[in-house]
Backbone:
């Protein structure tokens, strides 16, 4: 299961949850203020790349590390 970040509409607190892909936050509660009905954040992800590849996976040597230069 993937990890998602949810934001509380009341206090703005961020909660990270391990949940099913279809989870929308409607039944989750804020760990800071207890409000139910969190909003799913759009967030980045991390990739470990290929072992021994310096974390760049199959990117070219001109890649700046974020793949915008090579993909």
Residues:
């Amino acid at each position: 299961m993937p990890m998602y970040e949810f934001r509380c509409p009341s206090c703005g607190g961020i909660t990270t949850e391990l949940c099913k892909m279809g989870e929308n936050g409607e039944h989750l509660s804020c760990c800071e203020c207890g409000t139910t009905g969190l909003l799913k954040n759009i967030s980045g992800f991390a990739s470990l790349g290929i072992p021994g590849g310096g974390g760049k996976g199959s990117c070219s040597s001109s890649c700046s590390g974020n793949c915008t230069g090579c993909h």
